[in-house]
């Protein structure tokens, strides 16, 4: 019986430590995550469609994050998910789930590791939105 109490106590202490670590990690992420700056800037978005055609969109904005620019300009539609904006349509071309299509956001050819609404922008930034197949 005494061993069972010690085991339960250890489990509870372990859970408390785990929860505290998760909260600390979240607070650190919010503190250190990239922050966008308000102020006038120009941003370019290059779109690559399923038919291999491309188009470029140039925006003047005071927004701090890319997602707000894309939504305000009507370039994208999407769903808010646990990781931010999930882009489902760009310039009226919808990704087809049955073909495992999705819109890939890159900057300078490198995949962006944040959703568009968490991606800070600076004057002169160039982003790419490419309709991609395969998960």
Care to describe what's here?
Helix content is 28%, strand content 36%. It has 135 residues and is α+β, with helices and mostly antiparallel strands. The strands form two sheets. Strands 2-1-8-6-7 form a five-stranded mixed β-sheet, with no helix packed on it. It has a three-stranded antiparallel β-sheet with strand order 3-4-5, with helices on one face. The longest helix is centred in the first third of the chain and has 31 residues. It starts with a helix and ends with a strand.
Strand content: 35-45%
Shape: elongated
> How many helix segments?
2
Q: Unreliable runs, pLDDT <50, ≥5 residues?
A: none
Task: Tell me the strand order in the biggest sheet.
Answer: 2-1-8-6-7
Helix and strand sequence: HEEHEEEEEE
SSE class: alpha+beta
Largest sheet composition: 5 strands, mixed
- Mean pLDDT over the full residue set: 86
Distance linking N and C termini: 51 Å
Radius of gyration: 21 Å
Helical content stands at: 25-40%
Q: How many β-strands, per DSSP?
A: 8
Helices and strands in order:
Layout: H1 2-32, E1 41-48, E2 54-61, H2 66-72, E3 76-81, E4 84-90, E5 93-94, E6 101-107, E7 110-111, E8 126-133
Summarize the structure in short.
It is built from two helices and eight strands.
């Amino acid at each position: 019986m005494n061993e069972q109490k010690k085991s339960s106590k250890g489990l509870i202490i372990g859970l408390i430590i785990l929860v505290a670590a998760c909260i600390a990690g979240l607070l650190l992420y919010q503190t250190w995550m990239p922050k966008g700056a308000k102020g006038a800037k120009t941003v370019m978005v290059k779109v690559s469609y399923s038919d291999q055609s491309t188009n470029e969109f140039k925006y003047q904005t005071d927004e701090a994050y890319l997602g707000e620019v894309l939504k305000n300009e009507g370039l994208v539609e999407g769903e808010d998910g646990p990781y931010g904006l999930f882009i489902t349509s760009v310039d009226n071309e919808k990704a087809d789930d049955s073909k495992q299509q999705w819109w890939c956001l890159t900057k300078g050819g490198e995949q962006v590791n944040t959703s568009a609404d968490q991606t800070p922008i600076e004057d002169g930034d160039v982003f790419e939105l490419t309709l991609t197949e395969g998960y």
